[in-house]
Write a structure and sequence with these properties.
alpha/beta, five-stranded antiparallel β-sheet, about 475 residues
Length: about 475
């Protein structure tokens, strides 16, 4: 546990300002009314010792209190959590009647309940008392914070603001109470899914066992109505003296690689009702699909390029999801350039086996020429899926009704948006002619779309 450090500073209170203004007014009036001069002198002779005694009692006789904070080290993005703070006397002074508590939380959190005013007479906030000596043991405070950004976070200290008995002085004490943790993407629904079947139903795709037309042999079973003749295993039929068919499942032990663009292309806020950026949605979809692929027996690797360069080597088994999540949870997007060509070239240097490569970005017309040199090299050995985020604003402008177009600027905007979308569709067709899979989706549906495409690839056996 970190050693507790304290730093205190004394400042005048509101009562001292009021008293000083009153004394200044009385002293000024005594120049015009000599009868007030003795009163002013007597009041000053009384006030100065009182101020000194009030400050001494606050500094040396007030209990500085001990502070302990309890917060979960792992939080979910966008889900509020409760922070518990225990403030207890250390037995070295008088317990303050009232003070204010302010926790110095990380700037990635939102909190609307600071500062908290604590009163000694507020028994609702006290902990239980000892039955033997009936001594006061402290306060239990709670407040709610909302994580607003993925990554590491740290609480460094808290502030305690004490007032003197006569409210002439205020003493601010900074107590170092450190707490550290991480904020992960919100996978509550994923954690509640007990198996792959439930998870796939949640995202809109149901796993179907195929009969006689799969890639990997799974088991033998008795023939049933509806089975094709091609699925009959004649050797097993001869041995068992009854019709026996082969059952297959999608091939396992294949590789999946995610290439995530953390540059300016995905550094856009999501639409209304959604939190985060397009990169956040892409990262959530990649982690969700990683869970599905690992449950299916495939190995998963990931590469981030653009604002952050990171490589997660291939991992296999459902327990590998924790390692992949810990390697990507703190990656943030930014408005910096990113090179799709370099990302694909880096992937080629790491990949030794045929791999299903999923590149998530926001493609432009100029990307067609940039990637024309490397796409043939990739399609010869690997299966590439290029996922582009939808341009919702361009689609809205291109689909405006005639009644909404009232000026020349509106005409030019709609025409430019229509041409832009047409160029993107033409680019997708060119890539598909080269053996590349393409997909355009929105932030709110990218998870289901990616999983559906992955399962379709597994069913077709093209990987």
């Amino acid at each position: 546990m970190d050693k507790e450090k304290r730093l205190s500073s004394l400042s005048p209170g509101r009562s001292l300002f009021i008293t000083a203004l009153t004394s200044l007014f009385l002293g000024t009036a005594s120049f015009f009314l000599p009868l007030l001069l003795p009163i002013w002198k007597i009041s000053m002779l009384i006030l100065i010792p009182v101020l000194i005694i009030d400050a001494i009692l606050l500094i040396f006789w007030t209990d500085r209190l001990n502070v302990q904070r309890k917060i979960s080290p792992t939080l979910a993005l966008g889900r509020s959590t409760t922070v518990n703070v225990n403030i207890s006397p250390n037995g070295k002074g008088i317990i303050p009647v009232k003070f204010k508590f302010f926790d110095i939380y990380d700037d990635s959190f939102d909190c609307a309940s600071m500062p908290i005013t604590v009163r000694s007479l507020n028994f609702a906030n006290k902990t239980s008392k000892s039955h033997k000596n009936d001594e006061f043991t402290g306060w239990n405070l709670q407040y709610i914070i909302l994580p607003g950004r993925r990554g590491n976070w740290e609480f460094k200290a808290c502030h305690l603001l004490f007032s003197s008995m006569l409210h002439f002085w205020r003493l601010k004490t900074v107590v170092t109470v450190e707490s550290r943790g991480r904020t992960y993407p919100d996978f509550t629904a994923l954690a509640q899914s007990s198996n792959l079947q439930v998870l796939l139903q949640c995202v809109g795709e149901k796993k179907v066992r195929r009969r006689g037309c799969g890639l990997e042999f799974e088991s033998l079973r008795d023939w049933q109505n509806g089975d094709t003749i091609k699925s009959i295993d004649w050797r097993a039929t001869s041995r068992r003296q009854k019709f026996t068919v082969r059952e297959y499942q999608e091939e396992q032990d294949q590789n999946v690689l995610f290439l995530l663009d953390s540059g300016y292309r995905l550094n856009r806020r999501n639409g209304e009702g959604q939190q985060g950026t397009q990169f956040d949605s892409a990262l959530n979809a990649a982690l969700l699909l990683s869970h599905v692929a690992l449950k299916s027996g495939d190995s998963v690797s990931a590469c981030v390029f653009g604002n952050c360069e990171r490589w997660i080597p291939p991992r296999k088994g459902i327990n590998a999801l924790c390692a992949i999540t810990n390697g990507l949870f703190d990656v943030q997007s930014a408005g910096v350039p990113s090179s799709l060509f370099s990302a694909l070239e880096t992937a080629l240097t790491h990949l030794k086996r045929r791999t299903f490569i999923v590149l998530v970005s926001n493609f432009r017309k100029e990307d067609s020429e940039q990637l024309s040199w490397i796409l043939p090299r990739i399609t010869r050995r690997h299966l590439l899926l290029l996922v582009s985020m939808r341009e919702s604003e361009a689609e809205r402008l291109a689909s405006r009704a005639l009644c909404e177009i009232v000026s020349n600027d509106d005409v030019l905007e709609s025409a430019a948006a229509y041409a832009y979308i047409a160029e993107r569709k033409e680019m997708y067709k060119q890539w598909e002619h080269q053996g590349v899979l393409t997909m355009e989706t929105s932030s709110d549906s990218i998870s289901a779309a990616l999983i559906n495409r992955y399962l379709a690839v597994k069913r077709k056996g093209v990987l």
